Amino acid sequence: MARYVLQLCYIGTRYAGWQSQKNAVSVQNKIDHALSTILKQNIETIGSSRTDTGVHAKQQFCHFDYEFPLPDTIIRQLNGILPNDIAVQSIYQVPNDFHTRFDAIYRSYEYHVVQEKNPFWYQKSYLMNRKIDLDVMNQGAELLLQHTNFKSFCKTKSETKGYNCKLRYAYWKQTEPKHLTFYISSNRFLYGMVRAITGTLIELGENKMTLAQLQDIINAQDRKQAKYAAPAEGLFLTEVKYSCDWEKFPCWK
Prior knowledge:
alpha+beta; Alpha-Beta Plaits; 2 domains; 10-stranded mixed beta sheet; 5 helices; 27% strand
């Protein structure tokens, strides 16, 4: 039995997130179906990150086990079956104990806010033409970096072994005229954490709260205090980082 890792990307607009579901179409459903069709046996993948409904991924990984060598044309075959909003970029054969979720050392996200109507960012950003203070949002992001417990930004029904996360960075930048981007990276993220943090920082930038109130929200360790989660369509998973050297593994591209 061999273990393989797929690197893929997708636009999440039409999907109920990454995770397979019985009563809704997910990205994982599409990947598993395509692999099962080509390899002629039931294939179930395990993903590196469980993106929410409507969230996109510039880089996502998943692994699966299969007892035979993969055909040379596997990527072309997969992309021929998959819809146009999901693409497999490469496949690696990895050690059998490699795990795409648990072996990741950090993950990074971007959140896009556009401040004027832009059809090229439709369903890939949050359209918000209200005035917003970028400087104070970055002050709020700096405040977050001083903490490790993010229970106030975790969905209440989440099953987690703890609420501590080590943020690598968190900051806002004006990337284009009328376009703001939030960058955040951590060793792990809680369920709904990025959208809750983003929404709270946007409220800070709209002068709906103060930095002192943001500090109170963090200290409260209560999801009810951070009331606003930014809409899913502006969020992109951009990188999942591992300590391994991918170039050492057999690869299909």
